[in-house]
């Protein structure tokens, strides 16, 4: 089972507000102190960064997000770094903690390094600034940006200066990652007390720059209701293959895959699983395709079913396939390149209810499953479904139009059907039978070339065959690809190909 560490918990705006509220009301820790810790933590990160810090421009809203920015300004002032503060909504209606921080900042300003502008249009752009602090809006954003906020965001994005956002880039929706009219393109985002899930959905990954987590003193028990997490190799252990006493003790994966014209998918999945050090990968194939695999897959055990003229699976193959699966303990990967022939759909839909093994259903395996209205998973077996967005939408009544909707659908579908979903896309989302979701935190667009899905399915199947839990198998499959991607990006200039991820 996956068990994320607290800095990898992802919150909605209302969950964040609830944690703030409980901390303030129940522990006696006040909002001013929380703001101080948030701002100090961001200031320390900035002081340790390679940004040239001599004079910053601070874009401040009237809420607590602006207050965070003023705490940063005060700590940088202590390091003799000047600040120009622009209050987009003036200084008459600041939140109480922001107001107090403005007064404190002025008290600290012995050498007149602070300038305050009460509105956007009074700002005189004559100074030389070397960084921008975005403290306009955080979790309090509740409508599209307009007027001066819109102008300030466009202005900040046009400057050739590093931008650091307090909590969330202004204009990014904290829950959905959608752009609210316009959005700050940050180089750094300081996530206070918990990362907001919108940082990782939809446009979020393209707006935040590096996200730096800043701890706040919230009791851990207040975070217990969190059900969305960020996948990260810092807390997901990738199990090393260990030699077994004999080949079948290191895990067996039965691969039911391939059809005429689509043997490449079966081969990629087989090689990918084999590369994970399994004892055996057993490819079950229609007999007519055996000569192709004999040449292409020398290390893989092949078990052919049917006649020499068969180049796709048919219902007649069912008894033979079930007999093969009886031979050894193991998991099943069904689908890569299996095709959509009517006979194959019929084969799959008769096979699945009789197959007691833990099973990954991928590609056209999912297509067949979606044709079968009353499908049910056999009791006791665990299923992982690995749909890309088109495949996922076949299980939904309504089109899935946004990542927030996809997250919601994946969570409900996997818990209602008691299975695990690996929803491919940017981000990749794992949904578990207990209603938890895990989001990827890297550029999955590198995997959007035909064949990467087969490689991923092979890795997920290999982990399942080694006995890992379904959610951990999905995480392991994804992160093995990420590890290869990181290696590739630092060592090569061209675009990686699917086989580079094997
Ligand atoms: N105790 C706390 O609550 C803490 C809050 N923190 C900071 O406080 C932020 C949340 O503070 P607030 O709840 O005050 O909210 P914000 O500071 O995000 O903004 C709220 C204000 O913006 C206005 N607003 C909303 N949408 C707007 C739009 N489209 N255009 C213009 N104005 C708009 C609202 O009317 C409200 O006055 C967090 O994101 C974080 O940065 C941190 O200081 C840590 C502790
Ligand atoms: N290691 C990985 N990490 C994240 N996403 C991945 C990884 N490998 C594959 N993917 C996802 O799988 C998708 C490719 O799968 P798919 O569309 O089914 O293609 P195919 O079956 O043609 O290979 C990619 O666009 C990406 O979203
Ligand atoms: K902000």
Automatic annotation (TrEMBL):
The gene is nnrE. This is Bifunctional NAD(P)H-hydrate repair enzyme. Residues 230-502 form the YjeF C-terminal domain. GO terms for biological process: metabolite repair; nicotinamide nucleotide metabolic process. The lineage of its organism: Bacteria, Pseudomonadati, Balneolota, Balneolia, Balneolales. Catalyzes the epimerization of the S- and R-forms of NAD(P)HX, a damaged form of NAD(P)H that is a result of enzymatic or heat-dependent hydration. This is a prerequisite for the S-specific NAD(P)H-hydrate dehydratase to allow the repair of both epimers of NAD(P)HX. Bifunctional enzyme that catalyzes the epimerization of the S- and R-forms of NAD(P)HX and the dehydration of the S-form of NAD(P)HX at the expense of ADP, which is converted to AMP. This allows the repair of both epimers of NAD(P)HX, a damaged form of NAD(P)H that is a result of enzymatic or heat-dependent hydration. Its EC number is 4.2.1.136, 5.1.99.6. Pfam families: Carb_kinase, YjeF_N. Homotetramer. Coiled coil: none annotated. Residues 16-224 form the YjeF N-terminal domain. NCBIfam families: yjeF_cterm, yjeF_nterm. It catalyses: (6R)-NADHX = (6S)-NADHX; (6S)-NADHX + ADP = AMP + phosphate + NADH + H(+); (6S)-NADPHX + ADP = AMP + phosphate + NADPH + H(+); (6R)-NADPHX = (6S)-NADPHX. (6S)-NADPHX binds at residues 64-68, 138-144, 149, 167, 265, 337, 388, 454. GO terms for molecular function: ADP-dependent NAD(P)H-hydrate dehydratase activity; ATP binding; metal ion binding; NAD(P)HX epimerase activity. Its cofactor is Mg(2+); K(+). InterPro entries: Carbohydrate_kinase_pred_CS, CARKD, Nnr, Ribokinase-like, YjeF_N_dom, YjeF_N_dom_sf. In the N-terminal section; belongs to the NnrE/AIBP family. Belongs to the NnrD/CARKD family.
